[in-house]
Amino acid sequence: MIRTRLRSAPRPLLLAVGGTLIGALALGGCSSSDSTSPADTGTASAETETLVVYSGRSESLVGPLLEQFSEDTGIDTEVRYGDSAELAAQLVEEGEQSPAEVFLAQDAGALGAVSAQGLLGPVPEQSLSLVPPQYSSEDGTWVGVTGRSRVIAYDAEQVPESEVPTSVLDLVDPKWRGQVAIAPTNASFQSFVTAMRLTIGDEATEQWLTGLVANDVQTYEKNGLILDAVNSGQVQLGLINHYYWYEKAAEVGEEAMRAQIAFSRPEDPGALVNVSGVGILAAGASEQADEFVAYLLSTDAQEYFANETFEYPLVAGVDAAEGLPALESLQGPPVPLEKLSELPATQQMLQDVGLI
C-alpha cells in the first residue's frame, strides 16, 4: 500500500543553517503553522513498518513506481511530496527528529545540502557500485538514480534552429528581450546557476542574472509551464530539463510540437548534466531504506525512468529512450556534482537580483 501526503512540505521564508541561507528562500506556500510533526503523521516506522519518503520528484512522475515498489516488496510507503530545495530545508530544520527515512531529490544540489549537515548516512556499497562515480557523492551519502540535461527550448515557428543560442550566456542579448523564460525557484534552475557560479565565477554569474532581469526575463514556477509557454508562442526561448520535451512529445506526438529543444555547446553552463538521486537519513537507516534505494537502481525501475519519464538511466545495461543523444556525448561544465550543494550562496544571489 502507498499512502501519499498531497500537502506540500512547510515552506519557511528564511532558514538559517550554519550562518547561511538554505532551502526555500522566498518560496511561497504553506506557513510554518502547517508543519506536521512525526506524531501527526502516524508513521513511526519502527512500529508500523512503513517507510517514510520525502520526495522532490512529483507524484505524477514517481507515484506509479513507488506503488509498484510497495506491491513488489510488501513495504508500505508514506510519501511527502514537495520541491527538492524546500524539502532539503525542512530536513535540516527537523534534523534527527525528522520522520523521513529516505530523501528522493530532483537534483544533486539538494542532496548535497542535506549531506553537508551530516544528516545522510552511507548508501550500501552494492547500490553505489551500480552507478558511475561521477553521478554520486564522493563520500557515498547519496547515489544518482537518473540523469538529465539542461536544454534550451525554442519556438520553431518564431526562431529558426540556426538562430538558437548555443550558450545560455547569450540570452541577455537585447534581441531576446521579454522572450526568455526561466523557473528561478526550481531546484534544477538553482543547481544550474550554482554550476555557472563555479564555472565562470560569482561576479560574472550575478552580472548574467542581472542582465536577464534587465532584459525582462519571464519567470514561471516549473519547467513544464515554461515548455507550455514556448509551445504556445508566449515566449521564444526557455530553460528546461530535456525530458519535459520528450514527455510532451510522447503525449501529443512530435509532429504536434511547436517547441523544439537544443543542447548548448560543450562545457557551457547550460549544458549541465545533473542527476536525480536518493539518500538515506542517518537517523532513519533501516533494511527497508536500503531496499528502497536498491529498487530504484533495479533494471525494472531504471527502465521505468527511461521509458516513462525519458530520463537517462545510470545503471549499465539499461538503454535510454529512443531519440535521446547518448549520455556520454553530453559535455557539461567541468563541475563535480558534489559542488552543487553550494545552494545557499546561489539562493542569496537570486534573491539579491530580485528573481526570488
Give the key terms.
356 residues, alpha/beta, D-Maltodextrin-Binding Protein, domain 2, eleven-stranded mixed beta sheet, 13 helices, 35% helix
Description:
The protein is of the alpha/beta class and 356 residues long. It has 2 domains: 2-147 and 274-326, Periplasmic binding protein-like II (D-Maltodextrin-Binding Protein, domain 2); 148-272, Periplasmic binding protein-like II (D-Maltodextrin-Binding Protein, domain 2, 3-Layer(aba) Sandwich), CATH 3.40.190. The chain has 13 helices and 13 strands. It has helices at 38-41, 45-48, 59-73, 84-94, 108-116, 125-128, 187-200, 202-214, 223-231, 242-252, 287-296, 299-309, 343-352; strands spanning 2-5, 16-17, 20-21, 50-55, 76-81, 102-105, 142-155, 180-182, 218-219, 237-241, 259-262, 273-280, 312-313. Strands 1, 4, 5, 6, 7, 8, 9, 10, 11, 12 and 13 form an 11-stranded mixed sheet that branches. A two-stranded antiparallel sheet has the order 2-3. Helix 7 (187-200) crosses helix 8 and helix 7 (187-200) crosses helix 13 (343-352). The longest helix is centred in the N-terminal third of the chain and has 15 residues, at 59-73. The two termini are 38 Å apart. 53% of the residues are buried. Mean pLDDT is 87; it is low at 1-48.
